[in-house]
Amino acid sequence: MAQISPKLAHTYFTELSVGSAVPLDLDDLLHMMNMRRHNHVVIGDIALRCYKNKSKWTYDERDVRRAAQALADFRLDVDDVLEVPLPAHCDHDEQDAEDRGRADWRRKIASWLFWQARHKQTEGRPYEEWDDSWTRIGASGLPGELTWDEFVAACTRFRGNIANTRPLELMTFTGGSLFLPRAYAELLDRWEQVEENLVTRARTCRDCAAQGPRWGGWRTQSPLGYVTLCPPCSGAAFQRYTGHLRGVLYDSPRVRSTRADDYLCRLCAVTRAAAWDHCHDHGYLRGPLCGSCNTFEGKTFPRNFLEAKEGAVLHLLECRDCLDRRTLPGRYHVAIIQKHLEATERHRIHSRRCKRRPSAQHLELAHGMHRFDLECWRHSETWTKNVPVPETAALVRDFVDQALAAAQPDTVVPAARAASETTTPA
Hints:
- The model has no long low-confidence stretch (mean pLDDT 88).
- The termini are far apart.
- By secondary structure, this protein is an alpha+beta fold.
- It folds into four domains: 3-72, no CATH class; 87-202, no CATH class; 219-299, no CATH class; 330-421, no CATH class.
- The longest helix is centred in the middle third of the chain and has 21 residues, at 182-202.
- It has helices at 6-16, 28-31, 35-38, 61-72, 105-122, 148-155, 182-202, 231-237, 253-256, 291-299, 302-308, 312-316, 320-325, 333-344, 389-406, 414-421, and strands at 3-4, 40-43, 46-53, 56-60, 81-83, 172-174, 177-181, 219-222, 225-228, 275-278, 285-289, 348-349, 352-353, 359-366, 369-376, 381-388.
- The strands form six sheets. The protein has a four-stranded antiparallel beta sheet with strand order 1-4-3-2. A three-stranded antiparallel beta sheet has the order 5-7-6. The protein has a three-stranded antiparallel beta sheet with strand order 14-15-16.
C-alpha cells in the first residue's frame, strides 16, 4: 500500500478530478473533520479510509486516485431535475438524540435557508420585536420573508458544503420550489447511506460488540487510529490513573519514561489517554487525558471547560502548587470573575433591582484592576465594574474552596481535603 500525506492526496485528487460535473470542496482531505467519528473522509458517495502511520495520518494513494477518477467521470443532466421539498424547521433541542447530526442533505439545505430567514427577521430589530415567523414557509416558498435573490447574495459569504461538494452551485429555484439535478440528488442519497453505515460500525465496541453513543463517545486513539471500546472494555484494557505521579514536574525523567496511553483519561474515564496534561503556570503534572479532553482544556474558552467538564476544577487542582495556594491557572481567573459578577450584579429599574442575570465581558487588566462591561439585554442597560487584583485572588480562592467542599470524599486526595479545611487569611 502506497501511503501518501493529506497534502499530497489533496493535490492528486484536485488534478485528477478537474472538470468533474460535481462542484467539489476538498478541504476535508486536509482537515479530516470526521476522523474521530469513523476514520474516513467521504467525498460524494465514496469513503476514503484514513490510516495512522508513525503518529501521522495518511491515505492509500490507490484509493485517492480511484475516487478522484470516479468523480471526474460522473455525469449529470442539468435539465433532468428533482424537486427538493423543505423539511419543517426543528430546533436542535427538539431533535431526537439519534437524529441529531445525522447525515441528511435535505435538512442541511433547509437549515441554511431557515438560518438566513432568521437573520433577516432579527437583524436591526430590538429583541422585543422578534417572533417565530421565520420558522414557517412563506408565500414565496421559502422560510419567513426570505427571497431567493437574498439567499443567493448571502451564499457568496459562506461555502455550503455537503459530502465535500457544493450543492448551492447546482441548485435552482423556480415557481416557489427548489430543484437539483436528479443524478446529483441520488449521489447525496448514497452519501447519507455511506455515512450511516460508517457511523454504525464505528459506534460498535471492538471487543464486546455493544452499541455506544452515536457521535464517538467510546472512540479512543490507538497507534493505528481511532478504535471503539465501551467503558468496561476500556477499563479492562487500560489502567486507571491513581495519582502516583502527583507532585512530579512535567519535564522530569520520571514522566518522560511513563506512557500516558497505558491509562484511561482521568476526566472522561471512558477513553484511552493520549498525553500527559500539566499546569502551564507551575509546571506540575495533572494527569493523563485523551486527545479530546486535552484539547478542550487547552484551547476552549476557560469558562466552557469549568462548566462543561465534570471534575474539571479537581483536575486542575492536581497541580501541587495550585492546590497548595488554593488557586487556578491565570487563564481561568477572568472566567471566575465573570461567573461571580453575573450571579451578583444587577441594575435598577424604577428603584427596583432587575431580576435578570447580566452578561459580563472582560475589557482589560490595567492599573491593578480587571475592567468588565455588564449588559442586561432585556432592558438595554450597560454599566462598568472594576475588580481589583486582590479581590480576584479572593474570588478564585473561594471558588476553589467551594469545589473542594462539594467534591465527593473519594474524589479528593488527602492534601486537597486538608486544604479545603484550612482557612487562609485573605
